[in-house]
Design a protein that fits this description.
Shape: elongated
Strand order of the largest sheet: 3-2-1-4-7-8-9-10
Structural class: alpha/beta
Number of helices: 16
Bound molecules: ligand SAJ
Strand content: 5-15%
Distance between the termini: 53 Å
């Protein structure tokens, strides 16, 4: 049914998805607005870090099934996986989706399927269809022609975990929400080309809300753990021991407190719900505020530890970890970065240990990147911001250090 598809956006989701289709024999045109991305992929290499992906891209480009391009071309299905960040006031910014609609509209033809994969506020798929309809008055769309529309439109969110994208793309279930039943059927048939999980069909609005709900569920649960860490600090209780004890209850499963919530999904998506239903989304809104406040709280703890050394001005701080979560190299939207930058702005000398990078980012360029052992050795205060496995071996050394702020419970785990 689908011999040729077009993937708009070749980032963390678009590229692996395009590649999996190509690896199953579908001809894929991958479209990205960044020339460097297009050139890199066409030379059989990748521009992102994701296990297993480079070999797959190399093979797909070599055998001619995957080709990157700056512009879309006629195909049977168009998949859109572009960013949906938020703008001023935590309002969703759909401009990338609008641009994608503008790019594919000229090449759309009767019988096509358009699938939106980007995390989106409820109603975005209907909006996408309106943009396409406005650009192509010669074609009919679901809002007016329903099941008989020339072009069918569906929503199908990605839900893969960075670092395990290839495996999860294949094995996770997919939620598919067509604007019509026909759109859902077409999208199910499309994804079944490589998805081994179930393709579960619903309507577009429910599918959009489902993606936002999954990440909000996690955000609210992390906020619960983070709030407990503040309460326990105030009441002089070890939060790690408390959580371990409470989790012995068969129906309790508290997540892990940390320095805050990072990444580009969990700290963003709940705002789309808050924006759509501000009066009702009180818990989801509060969870966001609790998690966003956590880096400040860690900074207060570091300030207290510095004060206790008696060298308020000159004390140096070892920062263990910059990534947004353990055992990855991704520093984007990382609370650990936020904390390191704030300490740096205060004029603190930092000893930064981040085993997954070779160079500190420009905002910390004048600070030293050293081994974890050296950082602990040199600093007056140590703050542990990421529970990288590589730090586990240093527990004894850390326990001997006079001033440690452990935001992730590393010392309580082993
Ligand atoms: N975190 C904690 N405590 C925990 C768990 C996580 O503080 O107990 C922090 C992490 O350190 C990190 C942040 O939360 O800063 C997010 O990490 P994560 O591992 O929970 O999630 P992501 O952002 O890597 O990926 C999430 C996943 N969503 C869910 O698990 C519901 C993934 O399946 C989604 O596909 C992805 O968001 C996405 O793209 O939306």
């Amino acid at each position: 049914m689908f011999d040729h598809i077009c993937m708009i956006g070749l980032g963390y989701i678009g590229l692996p998805t395009a590649t999996l289709f190509a690896s199953r024999g579908v001809r894929v045109t991958g479209v990205d607005v960044v020339p460097h991305v297009v050139e890199t992929i066409n030379s059989g290499r990748i521009h992102i870090v994701e296990p297993e992906l480079d070999g797959l891209v190399h093979a797909a480009v070599n055998d001619g099934h995957l080709r990157a391009s700056l512009t879309p071309e006629p195909a049977q299905a168009f998949l859109i996986a572009v960013p949906t960040p938020f703008k001023e006031g935590h309002r969703p910014d759909l401009s990338y989706i609008e641009a994608a609609a503008g790019a594919i509209a000229p090449v759309l033809a009767q019988g096509n399927l358009v699938v939106l994969e980007s995390t989106s506020p409820v109603g975005a798929t209907e909006q996408l269809a309106r943009w396409l309809a406005a650009a192509r008055p010669d074609l009919s769309f679901p809002a007016t022609a329903g099941e008989q529309a020339d072009v069918q439109v569906a929503y199908c969110p990605e839900r893969v975990l960075p670092g395990q994208v290839v495996r999860e793309l294949v094995s996770n279930d997919r939620v598919i929400g067509g604007l019509t039943k026909r759109a859902s059927d077409m999208a199910s048939a499309l994804y079944q080309v490589f998805v081994q999980g179930q393709c579960v069909v619903t309507n577009a609005r429910t599918a959009e809300m489902c993606k936002l709900t999954e990440n909000s569920f996690r955000d609210v649960n992390i906020a619960f753990a983070n709030e407990l860490s503040l309460i326990c600090d105030r009441l002089d209780i070890d939060v790690w021991e408390l959580i371990a004890l409470a989790n012995r209850h068969p129906r309790v499963n508290i997540l892990t407190p940390g320095p805050g919530v990072g990444g580009h999904c969990i700290a963003v998506d709940p705002w789309f719900i808050v924006d759509s239903a501000p009066e009702q989304a009180r818990l989801i809104h509060t969870a966001r505020l609790v998690n966003d406040h956590k880096p400040e709280w860690v900074l207060e703890r570091v300030a207290r530890a510095v004060e206790a050394t008696g060298q308020r001005e000159s004390a140096s701080v070892a920062v263990l970890g910059l990534a947004f979560k353990p055992d990855i190299d991704d520093l984007r939207e990382s609370p650990a970065m936020q904390i390191a930058q704030a300490l740096s702005r205060q004029g603190r000398t930092l000893w930064i240990a981040e085993p997954h990078i070779e160079q500190v980012p420009p905002s910390l360029a004048h600070q030293a990147l050293v081994s974890p052992a050296e950082a602990i050795e040199r600093a007056d205060v140590v703050v542990i911001l990421v529970a990288h496995q590589a730090f586990g071996a240093l527990r004894e050394r850390l326990r001997r250090h006079a001033a440690v702020v452990d935001a992730v419970g590393l010392l309580r785990r082993g």
